[in-house]
Amino acid sequence: MTKAEATAQVFLTAFKALPKAERDAVLVGMARDKKIACDLMDLVLIAQRRGEPSRPLREYLSEKKSR
Fold first, then answer.
1. DSSP three-state, residue 45
2. What distance in Å separates the CA atoms of residue 45 and residue 37, rounded to the nearest whole number?
3. What is the rounded distance in angstroms from the CA atom of residue 56 to the CA atom of residue 67?
4. Residue 26 contacts by C-beta under 8 Å, 6 or more apart in sequence?
5. pTM score > 0.70 for this model?
6. Where are the domains of the chain?
7. Mean pLDDT of the chain
């Protein structure tokens, strides 16, 4: 486990230990921070699409150009 992963695990453990009202307050604060909210949406999208097949960027760009 990397140092970053260990630090993240400590924060996640502490977050999970909070009472629900405090967890909700943290999440609301994160949602109100535009940069953090955008990062979270990106991570959710990546996680949702992780199993999809990929294709070369050149192929995509070529197809997009021909449209």
1. helix
2. 12
3. 17
4. 15, 18
5. no
6. 20-66
7. 95
